[in-house]
Amino acid sequence: MERDATSASTTEGDAMSNISALLEHNKAFASSGTWRKTPRLPFLPFKGLYIITCVDPRVDPADFLGLEFGDAIVARTVGGRATDAVIFDLSYISYLVEAKAPEGPYFEAAVIHHTDCGSRLLEDPDLRHGFARRSGYDEQQLAALPATVPAETARADVAKILAAPQVSTKITVSGHVYDTASGLLETVAEPVRVP
Ligand SMILES: [Zn+2]
Fold first, then answer.
1. Does residue 8 surpass a pLDDT of 50?
2. How far is the CA of 22 from the centre of ligand 1 (A)?
């Protein structure tokens, strides 16, 4: 069956656009001019923060820390774990500061793990095995992912970043736990300079 170009681009298969309902908000944002108030350089966020946290929609630091436009760099992964990809990005962005704005200010990388994390479903051997079979990912690595005790995994990821030789020695790293039952954030590792 032939389709015209317009319908093919918008109604292919059964796909529906969830974002189209938000485009009015985007127009209001564009006309507000908020986007003009940018940091001096995009890798120097206003609040000096590079937050690493979970993809969970309840765990958005803009909500629980009151971050506004340009305030922080935010990296989100399953569990907020400091994966190799996170460390690559952190290395690159911290190098950009060294190379393009050596006077700083240098940012604090804040690792935030949380209670009731969906990464913990990987504690279930059946689910873990099923996902390993479905995806080809290494089952041992999957077993190490869950934020079972978020204070412990947050501290472990702070230690991992501090030990990564690629990361600039000018940044600091801290660890925190967000409690989804109270909305409160607790610091479990005070900021330490990369050695
Ligand atoms: Zn989570």
1. no
2. 25
